[in-house]
């Protein structure tokens, strides 16, 4: 078996007495379409925070392409190619959509936007930024200020920025959360249309989306991996139904 793109060994994180993430052995393959599901409080977000370096682990290792990056801070992991969608307030709301992606591409290529050359004057960088916007179908909004965009399309700018960083791993923590239901499809379409070579790990509550998108599903319960498998295996797993899917079905039903 070839080395995975991103791997964890015995990864754990506690908050005081609470074992939020416990002894996780996980593999994300190059180009993977992998979903992480589980009840609220299972430790999914904490796990992604450990992968992206937002949180330091208490135990275990994070390994990227065979290198131990457990101690590496978030910014260095981004440079290596591990990106996550950012909170909305990390966008430059007073700049245009294109300028936001331009800055990400310019940072990656080492061309700092200078005072003498206002953002948007380096043609190759602009071309690449436009290409990222086309990938998430945001090219028509290139000239709009981020602050003028509906919330759902602002989330697309974050995905375009992650693409502008030439990421090989993209970590998406409920990318459609908080987006009005009429707009969620544009996010999910963009996720479905991500370049094939990127390994994607998505936390998503909507099981229709998960089963459509994922080729592999990891189920977390109470900080640990409960099980992992193909969508078919997870759908057929009675225990998963009991701890999670049944709960979802129950929530969706008008009467128990
Ligand atoms: N910064 C924190 N301090 C203390 N407890 C936390 C912190 N972050 C998360 N937790 C706790 O860790 C557990 C896992 O949380 P989280 O990773 O957000 O779960 P999920 O994303 O699966 O809903 C929960 O019990 C949560 O309350
Ligand atoms: Mg969460």
The average pLDDT value, as a whole number, equals: 89
Structural class: alpha/beta
CATH architecture of the largest domain: 3-Layer(aba) Sandwich
Quote the beta fraction.
Answer: 15-25%
Strand order, sheet with most strands: 6-7-8-3-9-10
Ligand set: adenosine-5'-diphosphate, magnesium ion
Which runs of at least 5 residues are low in confidence (pLDDT < 50)?
252-256
* CATH topology (level 3) name of the largest domain: Rossmann fold
Return the domain count. Answer: 2
CATH superfamily of the largest domain: P-loop containing nucleotide triphosphate hydrolases
The main β sheet shows up as: 6 strands, mixed
Specify the overall morphology.
Answer: globular
Cα distance spanning the termini: 45 Å
Can you tell me about this structure?
The N and C termini lie far apart (45 Å). The chain has helices at residues 44-52, 74-80, 97-109, 123-135, 151-164, 184-192, 207-213, 231-236, 238-252; strands at residues 6-15, 18-28, 33-37, 59-64, 67-68, 82-84, 169-173, 199-203, 216-221, 224-229. The protein folds into 2 domains: 1-81 and 167-256, Rossmann fold (3-Layer(aba) Sandwich); 89-165, no CATH class. The chain contains 9 helices and 10 strands. The longest helix is centred in the C-terminal third of the chain and has 15 residues, at 238-252. It is α/β, with parallel strands linked by helices. Residues 252-256 have low confidence and may be disordered. A 6-stranded mixed beta sheet has the order 6-7-8-3-9-10, with helices on both faces. A 4-stranded antiparallel beta sheet has the order 2-1-4-5, covered by helices on one side. Helix 3 (97-109) crosses helix 4 (123-135), helix 4 packs across helix 5 and helix 5 runs parallel beside helix 6 (184-192). Strand 7, helix 6 and strand 8 (199-203) form a beta-alpha-beta unit. The structure holds adenosine-5'-diphosphate (ADP) and magnesium ion. Magnesium ion (MG) binds at residues 44-45.
């Amino acid at each position: 078996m070839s080395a995975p793109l991103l791997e964890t060994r015995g990864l754990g994180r506690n908050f005081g007495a609470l074992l939020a993430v416990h002894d996780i052995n996980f593999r994300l393959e190059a180009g993977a379409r992998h979903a992480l599901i589980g009840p609220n409080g299972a430790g999914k977000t904490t796990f992604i925070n450990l992968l992206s370096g937002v949180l330091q682990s208490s135990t275990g290792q994070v390994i990227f392409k065979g290198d131990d990056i457990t101690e590496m801070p978030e910014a260095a992991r981004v440079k290596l190619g591990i990106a996550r969608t950012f909170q909305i307030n990390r966008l430059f709301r007073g700049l245009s959509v294109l300028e936001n992606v331009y800055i990400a591409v310019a940072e990656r290529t080492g061309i700092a936007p200078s005072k003498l050359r206002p953002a948007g004057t380096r043609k190759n960088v602009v071309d690449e930024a436009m290409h990222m916007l086309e990938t998430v179908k945001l090219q028509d909004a290139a000239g709009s200020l981020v602050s003028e965009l509906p919330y759902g399309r602002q989330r697309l700018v974050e995905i375009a920025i992650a693409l502008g960083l030439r990421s090989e791993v993209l970590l998406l923590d409920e990318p459609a959360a908080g987006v009005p239901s009429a707009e969620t499809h544009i996010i999910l379409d963009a996720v479905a249309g991500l370049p094939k070579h990127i390994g994607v790990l998505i936390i998503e509550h909507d099981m229709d989306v998960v089963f459509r998108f994922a080729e592999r599903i990891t189920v977390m319960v109470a900080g640990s991996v409960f099980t992992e498998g193909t969508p078919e295996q997870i759908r057929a797993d009675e225990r998963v139904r009991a701890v999670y899917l049944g709960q979802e079905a129950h929530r969706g039903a008008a009467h128990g």
